[in-house]
TrEMBL record:
Protein name: Dynamin family protein
InterPro entries assigned: Dynamin_N, Mitofusin_fam, P-loop_NTPase
Pfam families, A to Z: Dynamin_N
Highest taxon of the lineage: Bacteria
Amino acid sequence: MEHPLSDRLAAACAEAAARVRSDAAVAAVARARARLADRTLRVAVGGRVNAGKSTIVNAMLGHRLAPTGSTECTKIAAWFEYHHQDQLVVHWRDGRPPETVPAKPGGGIPDDLPHSHTEVSHFVARATDRRIGREFVIVDTPGSDSLSGLDDYSMGTIRQADALVYVTEDAGEVNRAALEGFRADVSGAHLSRQNVIAVLSWVDKIADHEPPERRRVVAARMARRAARDLRALVCEVVPVAGLLAQTARGADFTELHAAALRRLAAADPVTRADLLLADEMFLDGAPELGVDRSMRADLLRLLDRYGVEEAFNAIDRGAVAASAILAGLEEVSGINDLLSAIHRRFQAAADPVRAGAAAAALERELAAARRQIATDPAERAAVADLLTVVRTIRRDPATRITALLAAVSAYETGALPLDGRAADELTQIAHGETPAQRLGLPGDASPGQVRAEAGARIDRWRAVEYQLPPHSSPHATVVLEVLEQLFLDAGPAHQAGAGTSGAARSSNG
């Protein structure tokens, strides 16, 4: 995987590191270099209260580390990482040194820790499963009905993330509003449709009178409709049966559970159907099958009746051992579709998001340190060189995608009045992946053609910006800045073979 923007900014930071002297500038550059050097994808998981976030986190981890009960711990952000010992590191809000405490048996955050979210900023849960953190790092953020209830640490964490998995129990208007509110609250997070996936987490609760295969069909249809409705906010909507996925990829399901399921699955069709009608019937029905009530309760805890029925289906297809049953459950849970989408969608978007976040932080921190920097002409020149690269990266179309998609959303809702041509150009520049695509040109367009088309569009969008009402003109400004960067990136006029009349003046003005 290539990282052109991150590499470019990292090289500029390395050069600046040898030239800056003041403590503030040295620290800012060091932080940026550390962030750019860490290429592990950082995925934040967010959503409303009781949406099933922590269950999805555990399924993604392949280990039950996040607490899933309604406890104080669910109000505290948590990172998860591999370690040679199962342990929990507690980070305090008052700045005292972190405290390492025992993890729950098997690793993870105990449900009954005596810590309040008013005292603890975040946890780091360490476990001995080498899968954790190998491909991406996960942070589980607290849920809130308003989303504005996220604390400063959680907000900052999401702003540092490369991508977001937004967990929702449905994709209706309430959750659309919640996701829009989430994006507004973490406005510095560089979240765009390209690096946000929505998860419909309660597939097992959809059409619960239907058999599992029918529920999956209904869930897939709901996900396709939600993807259309939320197209300005998310790149994909994936249905996942959260509890089933958590158990399928975890270590709680044993051969004893498999043996109990085989005995229950061997019942005659009428008895088996009766067992699945209600929890009470599953717990107490058909005692002649030789499965005691405590085991049945444990199966419901791990699978619910939906998962039990899926396990019966796996057994009917020939699964015998626990591993074979779990493989069947994992396949139908939807978790593999989610993991595939994370790799397919997020890896490509990670470079501009990481570079854009690092560039924004550098610009902000160096601006705050300008009084120290101003006392040394050599350092001032070094910082100026670095900021030239920073601002170029911040104007790159790939790092401006959040603002561009906000403009698309404003147009779609009527808040950005555009004629047909301008609307088409906005769509192209927001959704294209190459300079040619962003300008509506053929894929083999020459640098000269790119420069000429960018220049022509700059002239048109200056007129658009002038004619828009004040509340809409910032969207046109974003488009103009991206067009100007495309114009500059196409190369000097004598190399690109294009004229420089109005466009050159606009890009240099």
